[in-house]
Design brief:
This protein is 11% helix and 28% strand. The longest helix is centred in the last third of the chain and has 11 residues. The strands form 6 sheets. A 5-stranded antiparallel β-sheet has the order 3-9-5-6-4, covered by helices on one side. With 327 residues, the chain is mainly β. The N terminus and C terminus are likely disordered. The protein contains 4 helices and 20 strands. The chain has 3 domains: 75 residues, no CATH class; 96 residues, Hepatocyte Growth Factor, CATH 3.50.4; 95 residues.
Length: 327
C-alpha cells in the first residue's frame, strides 16, 4: 500500500478519507452555563483565534469528554482558559494579538462531556477569565499594534469602559487613566483620545501599522492612532518576538510572512507530500486522534501515526490523525 503525506499547514496523508463523526452543535433551547456556574471566573464570551497562532498559548489539552469544569481545572494558575472545537482546552495569561470578541452564535459546539455546556467551535473559543484577575502590575504593558474600530455602529467603540479626550494626550497618560480604573486594555486614537476597557467589541480587528499615523497631541514622538484606528495596549502583555512580521501587521500579512518563510517538509520514507490543506467544514480535517508537542517535527508526527493512513501537522506543534482506511 502506497502511503501519501499531506501538509495541513503541512498535511501528511495516504489514502481515502472516511467519514468522521462531528461534535454536536448546541441548540437554542439548551441551557447555557453562566459565569455564576463557574465560581471564580467571568464568562468573556466567544472569541476568535489569534492573528498568528493560538489565542491562548500557555498550555493545551484535549479530551473527548471535555467540559468547562475539566478545562477550568486543567488551567489552574492561568488567568484565562478557553474551550474550542468541543474537545480542546487552552490556557494562558493573556489573549494573543488578533484574538477578538465575536458573535456568541459563532460558538455553537456542545461540550462532549456535558451537552448543556458550550465548547467553542472551529477556530472559536468560549473564553473565561479569573474573577478580578486584572494585571498584576499596571506599570507594565505591551502593544498589540494598530486596530480598527468596529465596522457596525451598533457595536459602539472597540473599548467602551471609559473615554478621555485631552490636548496633552500621550500613551503614558492614557495608561495612567486606564490603570486607575483597573481596566486591562487601553487604546489611543485620533491624536487626543484615550479609551479603556476589559474586552474588545465585536468587529474590532488588527489593521496595518501604517493606518495608525497620527502623532500624540501631548508628545509628537509618539503615535496615537488614526482615523477610526487606535494603538491598542494591554497591561501585563509581552508581545512575542517575531523576525518576519511586526505586531501591528494584519492577519493576512502575518499569515503570508509565516508561510513564505517556513521550510518545506521532507516526506518520511513511505509517504508522499500532498501539500497544504484547509480544515474541513464544521470539523477537523483529521479526527482520529490529536497530539501536541512543543518540539514537533514531521518525523515525530509520522512516528505517532503508525496504523493511520493520513497525518497532518498544524500550528507548528499539533498533529491530527485519521482512522486508517481499510483497503
Amino acid at each position: 500500500m502506497q502511503l501519501t503525506l499531506v501538509t495541513l499547514g503541512g498535511l501528511l496523508a495516504a489514502g481515502i478519507v472516511s467519514a468522521a463523526p462531528q461534535y454536536q452543535q448546541s441548540t437554542s433551547n439548551v441551557h447555557r452555563i453562566t459565569q455564576r456556574d463557574l465560581t471564580g471566573y467571568d464568562n468573556l464570551g466567544c472569541y476568535t483565534e489569534a492573528t498568528s497562532g493560538r489565542a491562548l498559548s500557555g498550555k493545551s489539552y484535549s479530551n473527548d469528554s471535555m467540559t468547562l469544569e475539566l478545562c477550568q481545572s486543567t488551567c489552574q494558575g492561568f488567568s484565562y482558559f478557553g474551550v474550542e472545537y468541543g474537545r480542546e482546552c487552552y490556557c494562558g495569561n493573556n489573549l494573543n494579538t488578533g484574538s477578538v470578541s465575536t458573535a456568541s452564535s459563532d460558538c455553537n459546539f456542545a461540550c462532549p462531556g456535558n451537552a448543556t455546556e458550550t465548547c467553542g467551535a472551529g477556530n472559536r473559543l468560549n473564553v473565561y477569565q479569573t474573577t478580578g484577575s486584572g494585571p498584576a502590575d499596571f506599570s507594565k504593558y505591551g502593544s498589540h499594534g494598530c486596530y480598527t474600530e468596529p465596522n457596525n455602529a451598533q457595536n459602539g467603540r472597540a473599548l467602551m469602559g471609559k473615554t478621555t479626550v485631552s490636548n496633552n494626550m500621550t500613551v503614558e497618560n492614557c495608561a495612567d487613566i486606564c490603570a486607575a480604573g483597573q481596566y486591562s486594555l487601553f487604546g489611543v486614537e485620533y491624536s487626543s483620545e484615550c479609551y479603556c476597557g476589559n474586552m474588545l467589541a465585536v468587529g474590532s480587528v488588527a489593521a496595518p501599522a501604517s493606518d495608525c499615523k497620527y502623532a500624540c497631541s501631548g508628545d509628537k514622538t509618539e503615535t496615537c492612532g488614526g482615523d477610526w484606528r487606535f494603538n491598542y495596549y494591554e497591561f501585563g502583555y509581552t508581545p512575542a518576538p517575531s523576525s518576519t512580521t511586526s505586531s501591528a501587521t494584519s492577519a493576512t500579512s502575518s499569515a503570508t510572512s509565516t508561510s513564505s518563510t517556513a521550510a518545506s517538509p521532507t516526506a518520511p520514507a513511505g509517504y508522499t507530500d500532498a501539500g497544504c490543506y484547509t480544515e474541513a467544514t464544521g470539523q477537523r480535517a483529521l479526527t482520529g486522534k490529536s497530539y501536541f508537542d512543543d518540539s514537533m517535527t514531521v518525523e515525530k508526527c509520522a512516528a505517532a501515526c503508525t496504523g493511520y493512513e493520513w497525518f497532518g501537522v498544524e500550528y507548528g506543534r499539533e498533529v491530527l490523525l485519521l482512522w486508517q482506511h481499510n483497503q
